[in-house]
């Protein structure tokens, strides 16, 4: 059976191999090839002459990549007709579709599949309202249309895979068959991780406490500025034992300006991009993980931090409250600095210890074997219905 997978993801081609920034790696695409005989990925793609060590291999057996021209900008909007022709051709020549939403390519593919009565699954990985509303002025104009469009598409779908346990299901309900499967699938749970974390907490002795976040630096809705402002407020109160480490790519001028304005430039450290395998080593060195973003699905970075027994806190955004205790959630507003300060002031040895144990146990729900078994069962039932 031939499956088309449609999404806006950008792949990179280097020396006849296809790579991803991590979101759709070889391992992730093999979720589909375990069930379907052939997978055609329709997405954006760029050829590169110099390899980037931060890229992850996406090429794998039984997967073909078909490039769709980037039509999303005003300058390239004229390419949409060519994009639709490519998408329509692939849908007509497949047996089924998985459309990952929100995405323009996924939406076009779904429209075609519905028109010619091809069976499809929606993978809903984020809230389009949050993504657009927190993006730009233009995004705010588009957000209501995208919200109601997605709501309608999901409601009428026969098969929907949600990455959250509750949030997306409540905001975009369906009467079809559903499954909740996070895109995060953690491999190993070593008991020594928790023991090492508890020992680290015990021996801190009121020394410097390091907060960490992994996210793009040049995307304001990632929210690092709120943590920086909170550190500035705490410094005014004489609390100076916090350091904030940021891992991620992108221009950092804006965040540096916030750090300068709030007099914490020496307490904010920009570590740049780290390869994914080095992220876990870095997580061992910090004391608290922060997920301050204003747009998410179910954040992989937070779950990975929790799997390292890290006490964590985050914004009241999408699936974040599904992962953390209520006392460690702050408002998703511009006036949340006081709440962040309150959370950090309460992070004493006892609280850190309790949250380390609690988060480590909570992360076990995202064990790879559990998640992938549930996903594979859903795909096999979908395939069986088609064959019947």
Describe this structure in words.
It is a single chain. The chain has 15 helices and 15 strands. By secondary structure, it is an alpha/beta fold. 43% of the residues are buried. The longest helix is centred in the C-terminal third of the chain and has 20 residues, at 368-387. The protein folds into two domains: 2-185 and 368-387, Rossmann fold (3-Layer(aba) Sandwich), CATH 3.40.50.2000; 191-365, Rossmann fold (3-Layer(aba) Sandwich). Strands 1, 2, 3, 4, 5, 6, 7, 8 and 9 form a nine-stranded mixed beta sheet that branches. A six-stranded parallel beta sheet has the order 12-11-10-13-14-15, with helices on both faces.
Question: Main attributes?
Answer:
15 helices; Rossmann fold; globular; 2 domains; six-stranded parallel sheet; 21% strand; 388 residues
Listing every helix as H and every strand as E from the N terminus to the C terminus, the arrangement reads EEHEEEHEHEHHEHEHEHEHEHEHEHEHHH
H/I helix tally: 15
Q: Largest beta sheet, briefly? A: 9 strands, mixed
CATH superfamily of the largest domain, by name, is Glycogen Phosphorylase B
Which percent range describes the beta-strand content?
15-25%
What percent of the residues sit in helical stretches (DSSP H or I)?
Answer: 40-55%
Q: Could you give the count of β-strands?
A: 15
For this structure, the CATH topology of the largest domain is: Rossmann fold
Query: Termini separation (Å)?
Result: 13 Å
CATH C-level of the largest domain: Alpha Beta
CATH architecture of the largest domain, by name, is 3-Layer(aba) Sandwich
Low-pLDDT stretches are none
């Amino acid at each position: 059976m031939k499956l088309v997978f449609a999404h806006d993801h950008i792949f990179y081609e280097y020396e006849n191999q296809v790579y991803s920034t991590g979101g759709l790696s070889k391992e992730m695409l093999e979720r589909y090839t375990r069930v379907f005989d052939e997978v055609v990925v329709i997405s954006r793609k760029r050829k590169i002459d110099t390899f980037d060590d931060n890229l992850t291999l996406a090429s794998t057996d039984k997967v073909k990549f078909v490039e769709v021209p980037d039509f999303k900008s005003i300058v390239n909007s004229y390419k949409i007709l060519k994009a639709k022709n490519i998408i329509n051709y692939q849908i007509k020549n497949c047996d089924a579709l998985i459309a990952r939403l929100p995405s323009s390519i996924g939406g076009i593919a779904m429209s075609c599949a519905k028109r010619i009565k091809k069976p499809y699954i929606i993978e809903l990985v984020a809230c389009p309202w949050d993504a657009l509303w927190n993006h730009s002025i233009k995004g705010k104009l588009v957000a209501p249309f995208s919200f109601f469009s997605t709501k309608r598409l999901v409601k009428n779908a026969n098969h929907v895979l949600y990455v959250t346990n509750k949030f997306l299901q409540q905001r975009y309900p369906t009467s079809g068959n559903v499954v909740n499967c996070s895109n995060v699938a953690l491999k190993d749970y070593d008991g020594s991780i928790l023991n090492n974390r508890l020992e680290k907490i015990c021996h801190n002795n009121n020394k410097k406490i390091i907060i960490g976040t992994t996210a793009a630096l040049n995307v304001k809705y990632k929210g690092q500025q709120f943590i920086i402002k909170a550190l500035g407020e705490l410094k005014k109160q004489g609390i100076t034992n916090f350091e904030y480490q940021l891992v991620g790519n992108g221009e950092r001028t804006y965040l540096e300006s916030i750090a300068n304005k709030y007099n914490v430039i020496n307490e904010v450290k920009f570590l740049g991009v780290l390869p994914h395998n080095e992220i876990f080593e870095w997580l061992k060195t910090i004391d608290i993980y922060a997920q301050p973003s204003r747009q998410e699905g179910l954040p992989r970075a937070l779950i990975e931090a929790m799997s390292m027994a890290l006490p964590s806190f985050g914004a009241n955004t999408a699936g974040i409250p599904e992962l953390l205790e209520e006392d460690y959630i702050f408002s998703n507003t511009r006036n949340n600095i006081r709440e962040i300060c309150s959370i950090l002031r309460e992070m004493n040895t006892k609280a850190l210890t309790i949250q380390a144990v609690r988060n480590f146990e909570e992360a076990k729900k995202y064990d790879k074997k559990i998640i992938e078994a549930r996903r594979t069962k859903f795909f096999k039932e979908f395939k069986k219905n088609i064959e019947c």
